[in-house]
Structure formats: structure tokens, C-alpha cells
């Protein structure tokens, strides 16, 4: 395509052509066209995960920034499925981040109480956490590393693949198998 970009040509170009032109020229018109093609799908994914229209709209706007940063660094074969996964992972990261920042009104929850039953649940959670740590250590090395990157370091599949040099499908498989193995291990050791 020439330096002068015609809107009609942009709209008629397939995803692969637009990706190629963007990565070669850095011209955001190509990426913008791709983004606009899938913006409704992205909004739907964000709304599904975030369950709030305003948060979903904000997330879709942030996804464009993610695209600017990540498209040039990745070999993308199918843009639609790639951007869907990127969006889903972005939303999951937002949800994880939000869970870390939960605030509690201390007036509603007294700091000290004569009733010590709440300590039982704290002790149970601590025991479960210790079992989980032991189960993680029993995983095969690749599964253990992928699980830690995903859950402890909040990395998405693409970032883990990039950091480890493994294929995206391999990372996904390691995390899924790791979660299944952790569940089995936790169930087996539930009474200990």
C-alpha cells in the first residue's frame, strides 16, 4: 500500500495485510482499522469478565495501548483469536489486581473479640496454603515455573511464553495440567 492510505483500501484489506503493514511501517491507521473491526467483540469479552459497562469501556481503551506495545513483538497468525486471548488475559489481570486491593471498613469488624472462632478459619487457611506450597513444589519443573509466573507474578500466557521461550500452547498446557495436578494433590492431602 502506498504512503497515502485510502479508507476504502483499509476497510477492504484482510487482517493479515493490515498486521503486516502496521509492523513494517508503524503507521497506526492499519492497527486502528484492525482494532475497530474487533472493538465490539473486545467490549463483549470485557463486559463478560468485568461485569461493569464502564470498566469494560475503559478496558477496551487500554487494550489499544496493549496492542501498540505487543503487536510488533509477537508473531500473530490469527489476529481475531490472538486479540481475544489478549483481551481475556487483560481482564483476568484486572480482576486479580482488584482482589489484591480489597478494603475493609474496620468499624464493622472489631479488631479484638472474646469469640476466638475466627482464628479457626485463619488457621485452616494457613494450613491449606502450606499444603498448596508443598503441592506446587511437587510439580514438574516446567509446570511449577509456569504456575508461579501465572499466579505469583501475574503474567499472562503471552508474557510467560516470551519469558521462557516456550510456545504459547505449551505454556497453556503446562498451566492447565499444573492446576489439575494441584487440585489432585490438594484433595489427596486435605486431611493432613
From TrEMBL:
SUPFAM superfamilies in the record: Sigma2 domain of RNA polymerase sigma factors, Sigma3 and sigma4 domains of RNA polymerase sigma factors
Listed NCBIfam families: sigma70-ECF
Name of this protein: ECF RNA polymerase sigma factor SigE
Family classification: Belongs to the sigma-70 factor family. ECF subfamily.
Gene responsible for this protein: sigE_1
Keywords, sorted A to Z: DNA-binding, Sigma factor, Transcription, Transcription regulation
Domain RNA polymerase sigma-70 region residues, every copy: 34-100
UniProt organism field: Mycovorax composti
Domain RNA polymerase sigma factor 70 region 4 type: start-end pairs: 131-182
Domain of life: Bacteria
Amino acid at each position: 500500500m502506498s504512503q497515502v492510505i485510502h479508507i476504502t483500501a483499509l476497510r477492504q484489506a484482510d487482517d493479515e495485510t493490515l498486521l503486516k503493514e502496521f509492523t513494517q511501517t508503524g503507521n497506526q491507521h492499519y492497527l486502528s482499522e484492525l482494532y475497530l473491526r474487533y472493538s465490539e467483540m473486545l467490549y463483549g469479552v470485557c463486559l463478560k469478565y468485568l461485569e461493569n459497562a464502564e470498566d469494560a469501556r475503559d478496558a477496551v481503551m487500554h487494550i489499544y495501548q496493549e496492542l501498540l506495545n505487543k503487536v510488533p513483538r509477537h508473531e500473530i497468525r490469527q489476529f481475531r483469536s490472538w486479540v481475544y486471548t489478549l483481551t481475556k488475559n487483560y481482564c483476568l489481570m484486572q480482576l486479580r489486581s482488584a482482589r489484591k486491593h480489597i478494603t475493609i471498613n474496620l468499624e464493622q469488624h472489631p479488631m479484638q473479640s472474646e469469640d476466638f472462632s475466627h482464628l479457626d478459619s485463619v488457621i485452616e487457611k494457613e494450613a491449606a496454603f502450606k499444603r498448596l506450597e508443598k503441592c506446587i513444589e511437587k510439580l514438574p519443573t516446567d509446570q511449577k515455573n509456569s504456575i508461579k509466573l501465572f499466579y505469583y507474578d501475574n503474567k499472562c500466557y503471552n508474557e510467560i511464553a516470551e519469558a521462557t521461550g516456550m510456545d504459547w500452547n505449551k505454556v497453556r498446557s503446562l498451566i492447565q495440567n499444573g492446576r489439575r495436578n494441584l487440585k489432585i494433590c490438594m484433595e489427596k492431602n486435605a486431611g493432613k
